[in-house]
Write a structure and sequence with these properties.
Distance between the termini: 50 Å
CATH superfamily: Vaccinia Virus protein VP39
Order of helices and strands: HHHEHEHEEHEHHHEHHE
Strand order of the largest sheet: 3-2-1-4-5-7-6
Helix content: 25-40%
CATH topology: Rossmann fold
Radius of gyration: 18 Å
Largest sheet: 7 strands, mixed
Strand content: 15-25%
CATH architecture: 3-Layer(aba) Sandwich
Number of domains: 1
Structural class: alpha/beta
Number of strands: 7
CATH class: Alpha Beta
Shape: globular
């Protein structure tokens, strides 16, 4: 039996373990949304007590729906653009590249802190066409590594809400100024969502907080003028919502007619450049 890999990550970086664990649990369900066997295999290789994460059924379903929605946007992009970049920001130990299996003309970039990339290299086998990049996304140098001349989709799952408003805007501006054309997809929360999530036990356990609130996705078009809102998804994936518990489904249904409640959680897709 191979020894498990120890981890040496900051509290912020350890948040990747929460989403990894949630995806592993969800993928063990008979009616799994993600069917992500890679997540289950990954947690078995890490020297960490995942049971300390007391994840509710509703949280696990929500995280799986979020990932599946972002998977679908990514699939649609690379189906339309056979030659493309996929830039997975804050990839952590997510197995999106293995779930989607992009074609040979797609260059996939998994980007995260160097410590995270080092752990990722130990956990996952090499994937043809996938390149690993250890970097601080708030700096500019990492972007110079990636060709700006092909259509590019940037995916940031569970990343931008941890940034300040200024840093989130800086990151978005850096991305759209580097690539000639493409899309960027990410999850966001309005101020009510940020307030609520920061009070959940799982967030207190990580000793990290969410900061960036998006109350109106259209306002980002003014903050970063080259962004153009393509999709504001506040409904998740309706076919999977019944997987949540009764009270979560009821609250979700009642919130649809109230904009501030509907925007507590959002999945946003923007176009930029000559797209």
């Amino acid at each position: 039996m191979n020894p498990k890999h120890p981890i040496s990550l900051t509290n912020l970086q350890k948040t990747l373990l929460i989403t990894l664990y949630a995806k592993a649990i969800e993928s063990a369900c008979q009616d799994s949304i993600l069917k992500d066997r890679f997540a289950a295999e990954a947690i078995e290789q890490i020297d960490f007590d995942f049971s300390r994460f007391q994840l509710s059924h509703n949280a696990i379903v929500a995280l799986a729906i979020r990932a599946k929605a972002l998977d679908r946007w990514t699939e649609a992009f690379i189906e339309e653009h056979k030659q493309a970049n996929v830039v997975h920001i804050g990839c952590g130990l997510d197995s999106r590249t293995f779930r989607l299996r992009p074609g040979k003309d797609v260059t996939w970039w998994d980007v995260d802190y160097p410590e995270v990339i080092s752990l990722r290299e130990k956990i996952y086998p090499k994937q043809p066409g996938c390149r690993l990049l250890g970097a601080n996304i708030l700096e500019n140098d990492w972007l110079k590594t990636i060709s700006p001349n092909v259509p590019t989709i940037v995916i940031a799952e569970g990343v931008l809400p941890y940034l300040s408003e200024a840093d989130a805007s800086k990151f978005l501006a850096n991305v759209v100024s580097h690539f000639q054309a493409g899309q960027i997809a990410f999850d966001a929360y309005n101020r009510w969502g940020i307030w609520w999530l920061n009070r959940l036990p799982i967030m207190r356990q990580t000793q990290e907080r969410l900061h960036w609130a998006v109350d109106d996705p259209r306002l980002l078009e003014k903050t970063v003028p080259t962004l153009r809102l393509n999709v504001e998804n506040t409904n998740g994936l309706p076919e999977f919502v019944p997987r949540a518990g009764f009270w979560a489904r009821t609250a979700f249904r009642l919130s649809r007619g109230v904009t501030p409640l509907r925007r507590i959680g959002q999945l946003l897709l923007y176009d930029f450049g000559r797209f």
